[in-house]
Design brief:
Layout: H1 2-15, H2 27-34, H3 38-46, H4 50-53, E1 59-64, H5 66-70, H6 76-80, H7 86-94, E2 97-99, E3 112-114, E4 120-124, E5 130-131, E6 134-143, E7 146-151
Parallel strand pairs: 1-7
Antiparallel strand pairs: 1-2, 3-4, 4-5, 5-6, 6-7
């Protein structure tokens, strides 16, 4: 269930970069509507995490942009999307999701946060807001079931 929740958070981040007015959508619908998170949405669908991320939450999703996925080594995304690599895909996606709703004002320098995947991410506030080695390029995109923080790099769990 946590894996599915993490994916929903990721999908929500995708939609978060678009101008957002009116009623709040869930993480997945926000991501789909944004148009700049096609890779993330495809990954959430391949990992079968859509229903989880459309659930109650709340979730905090650190959502990589399409450009962030494109910066991975050639063939990485295609490999992750293969059915035989579904467990690895779920691990990567859920590493981008933290249970609960964590707004930027809740962050402190050098804090760690446990992800749905089971590992921890570190927050660094010295030069902007960093999650591990990814920069937050848009923060606090509120959805009906959590919050999305858009990041410029895919963060990978330690093996």
């Amino acid at each position: 269930m946590f894996r599915k929740l993490a994916i929903a958070g990721v999908a929500g981040a995708l939609i978060a970069t678009t101008a957002f007015a009116g009623g709040k959508k869930d993480i997945v619908d926000t991501a789909v509507g944004a148009g700049s998170f096609e890779t993330l949405v495809a990954a959430v669908q391949a990992a079968e995490l859509v229903d989880t991320l459309k659930g109650e939450g709340p979730f905090t999703v650190f959502a990589p942009t399409d450009e962030a996925f494109a910066a991975l080594p050639e063939g990485t995304v295609e490999s992750l999307l293969m059915p035989e690599n579904k467990d690895q895909l779920i691990a990567v996606l859920t590493y981008h999701v933290v249970p609960g709703k964590v707004m930027s004002t809740d962050l402190s320098d050098d804090m760690t946060a446990a992800t749905v995947q089971g590992g921890n991410v570190t927050i660094d506030l010295d030069n902007g807001v960093m999650v591990n080695d990814a920069s937050v390029v848009q923060a606090d995109i509120e959805t009906s079931n959590g919050v999305i923080h858009v990041i410029d790099k895919v963060i990978l769990p330690e093996s």
